């Protein structure tokens, strides 16, 4: 098993800094440094182990070796086919099909994306535990961002909290949306008599959804949606709130006349790579069940 590593060449602006301060600037926490020191990691400068009080020099090569992560016992590896859109040593992008949970739950302890990931890592000879960055509901399809190490997960989670991971969705909603575009700003909170269902309520959390009509059909509308916040069930709650629940979303007033699951797909994902700093953009077209509804009246 290989340890996860990060490395840098020290520039003039970081000359004479303590390693501790330099690594803090790289968002490596004090807890992570303690873990590196006592759980099998290392800090190497020019091929030699150093402690955090070493003063860096311009041109130094710094390598941080993270300890191998223990694999959690709560998830069982399962041989589940995965559609991997992109992979490098730091992260993966996966196109999740509908009717697959992102992580196991009491209702669905098996068959999740996480179960399949553990098996994939095992086949690749990687001792990696599962770090999902952008979860999707069980019935929602589309792009999911996965970190291959907890430090990468930490970096991506920081981006997510700052709204720097952008997701664009397609949804098929009931009825004809009259406005060509709009923004929904109604706060969302948990429904008082449910542990699952959410609703628009005055004491809820801030929630902002932008929508744009792509095409209108006789009884439903294809819309594109972009989120500024990431509340649970946000798109589903907001579209239901304005009188256009998602097709197939019986929890929020949709019907299963045209599709048997909520017609929601994460179509586009944009973010800055946490290590290379390259802007990455991924897109995935509608799955078959939603695509068939958008072509039904083109025949």
Walk me through the structure:
The structure is a single chain. With 299 residues, the protein is of the alpha+beta class. The protein is 18% helix and 28% strand. It has helices spanning 19-25, 30-38, 113-123, 150-161, 234-241, 288-295, and strands at residues 5-9, 42-45, 48-49, 61-65, 83-87, 91-96, 131-132, 141-147, 166-174, 181-184, 188-190, 198-200, 209-216, 220-227, 264-272, 279-283. The strands form three sheets. Strands 5, 6, 7, 8, 9, 10, 13, 14, 15 and 16 form a ten-stranded mixed sheet that branches. It has a four-stranded antiparallel sheet with strand order 1-4-2-3, with no helix packed on it.
What percentage of residues falls in helices of 4 or more residues?
A: 10-25%
Q: What overall geometry do the principal axes of the alpha carbons give? A: elongated
* Uncertain segments: none
Structural class: alpha+beta
Counting DSSP E segments of at least 2 residues, the number of strands comes to 16
**Share in β-strands:** 25-35%
What pattern of helices and strands is seen along the backbone? EHHEEEEEHEEHEEEEEEHEEH
| Rg, nearest Å | 22 Å
Largest beta-sheet details: 10 strands, mixed
Report, as a whole number of angstroms, the end-to-end distance: 54 Å
Query: If helices are DSSP runs of H or I spanning 4 or more residues, what is the number of helices?
Result: 6
Quick check: average pLDDT? 92
């Amino acid at each position: 098993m290989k340890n996860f590593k990060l490395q840098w060449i020290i520039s003039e602006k970081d000359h004479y800094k303590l390693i501790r301060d330099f690594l803090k600037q790289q968002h490596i926490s004090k807890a992570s440094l303690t873990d590196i020191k006592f759980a099998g990691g290392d800090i190497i400068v020019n091929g030699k182990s150093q402690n955090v009080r070493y003063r860096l020099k311009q041109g130094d090569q710094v390598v941080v070796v993270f300890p191998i992560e223990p694999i959690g016992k709560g998830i069982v590896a399962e041989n589940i086919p995965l559609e991997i859109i992109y992979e490098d040593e730091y992260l993966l992008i996966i196109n999740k099909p509908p009717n697959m949970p992102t992580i196991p739950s009491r209702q669905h302890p098996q068959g999740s994306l996480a179960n399949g990931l553990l098996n994939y890592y095992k086949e690749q000879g990687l001792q990696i535990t599962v770090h999902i960055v952008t979860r999707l509901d069980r019935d929602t399809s589309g792009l999911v961002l996965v970190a291959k190490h907890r430090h990468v997960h930490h970096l991506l989670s920081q981006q997510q909290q700052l709204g720097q991971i952008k997701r664009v969705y397609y949804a098929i909603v009931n009825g004809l949306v009259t406005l060509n575009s709009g923004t929904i700003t109604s706060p969302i909170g948990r429904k008082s008599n449910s542990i699952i269902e959410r609703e628009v309520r005055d004491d809820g959390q801030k929630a902002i959804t932008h929508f744009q009509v792509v095409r209108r059909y006789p009884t439903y509308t294809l819309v594109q949606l972009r989120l500024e916040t990431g509340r649970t069930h946000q798109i589903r709650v907001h579209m239901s709130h304005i009188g256009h629940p998602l097709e197939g979303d019986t929890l929020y007033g949709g019907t299963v006349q045209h599709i048997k699951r909520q017609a929601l797909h994460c179509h586009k994902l944009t973010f800055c790579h946490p290590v290379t700093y390259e802007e990455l953009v991924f897109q995935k077209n509608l799955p078959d069940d939603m695509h068939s509804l958008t072509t039904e009246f083109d025949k």
